Amino acid sequence: METITMCHGAASGAAPMIFFRLEDGEQTFYHATGIKAKPEEAEQNQKLRSQLELHKLAMCKAYTFMQIKRMDMNSRIFETLVKQVMTESVGYAMRQEGEPVYTRLIRYLEESFRDGVIGQGRYVIMLGKARKLQRFLIIKGLSTIRAREFTADLLLEYRQFIYDEYLYVPQFPQLYPKGDGRHAPQRRSKNTTVVHDLKALQAFFRELEDTGEIRRSPFKKISFEKRKSIMHVMYDAPVFLKAEEFRQVVNTAVPPNLQQTKDIFVLNCALGCRISDLKRLTMEKVAVSEDGIPYVHYIPSKTVRAQTTNQEIQTPLIQLALEIIQRTRLAFNGHNPKYEKQVYNKSLRRLLAYCGINRQVCLYDYEQGDNVYRPLYEVASSKLARKTHVDMLTKVQINYYAAGLHREGSDTVFRYTSLDLADRYALLQAAFQ
């Protein structure tokens, strides 16, 4: 049982002030009332005594709340709750036993990866999102909160936290250690990341709802219009290199420090695979068909665990791609473990700037509420190659529905024909000539 003792003191040079000390075994908390008076004055002043009793009552309620809620027992959380009690704003009452929401989220991700619901790349990304939720809960003093207690109000608080997390870095440096490739959170100027984080959490709560672990997801406790608003993403128009821009990159002689980036980018444009699949390619994945057509074959890493067959992607190698593979022997893959996607993206932007790819592209700025225009080389990322590949192939094919035989979107035409390796090789040659 806790005991509360009235104390009296002040920092050097300050006026004396009444504060309380709460003790319960090894737990000790202090609460400054802000009342400048001596303890004996409380015996003579009824109004002062009533004010002090309110502070004591708030301390009792806050401490009991921390115990019931299984919150982190530290002075910062205690003082925050005392202030909330004083203003009658304490919430998140604990009513149900269960696994802490962060622990349950990690178990959900591990099971999803194990069962093939998500791949390796997605699993790593989701672990990062889970750690972000953990930081939020620690800062709020709710690290042991259960999934059943995660309210709609708390969900909206978390949404704002994602936008503003960079503000907490100076206040909680222990949660944001430097080194080992870690980067401090940046100010979010777009809502794309925020919505993706919320959708990941929504999938988790939907799983718990489907399995009966929670009665109702906190997302369903938000009104339809508000949920539609906070989950809305406005995507920018797709950015890709035009054919002449791609040839400009190919024909530009670059310095040695950009040559590897150029080889990776040009090869990626010719193959159209994800950068994660390109990095996994080895010479064993290069083959020649019976017709003498060179090609690469691989199973996409993003969907490999969810596939029902082991069918591989087979992409013909045009002369441009074949020359890079023969010259590099794919030596840029796996030989530099620190050459991660972020490093590649920065190098790619330097490459495109050097090659003069400065066409203005349109992006939506959420702060301004309007479109802004930036040089393409400033916004380039590893996805640019895949988008460029798809666009260049699309523009050398006749639209299936152009003849008017079937309505747009009909799948019927795909039952009439198929493209074999030789057909696709011809299309690739036409696209990249």
Q: Any idea what the shape is?
A: elongated
SS-based structural class?
A: mainly alpha
Helix content: 40-55%
Termini separation (Å)?
82 Å
Give the strand order of the largest sheet, numbering strands 1, 2, ... along the chain: 1-2-3
SS field, number of helical segments: 16
How much is the average pLDDT? Answer: 84
Outline the biggest β-sheet. Answer: 3 strands, antiparallel
Structure characterization notes:
The structure is a single chain. About 2% of the residues have low confidence. This protein has a three-stranded antiparallel beta sheet. It has 16 helices and eight strands. The protein is mainly α.
What's the arrangement of secondary structure elements?
Blueprint: E1 3-9, E2 17-24, E3 27-35, H1 39-44, H2 46-69, H3 75-86, H4 101-114, H5 120-140, H6 152-164, H7 192-210, H8 224-230, H9 243-251, H10 256-271, H11 275-280, E4 286-288, E5 294-298, E6 313-316, H12 319-328, H13 341-354, E7 360-365, E8 370-375, H14 376-379, H15 383-394, H16 421-431
Helix pairs in contact: 2-3, 4-5, 10-12, 10-13, 10-15
Give a brief description.
The protein is mostly helical. Helices cover 46% and strands 11% of the residues.
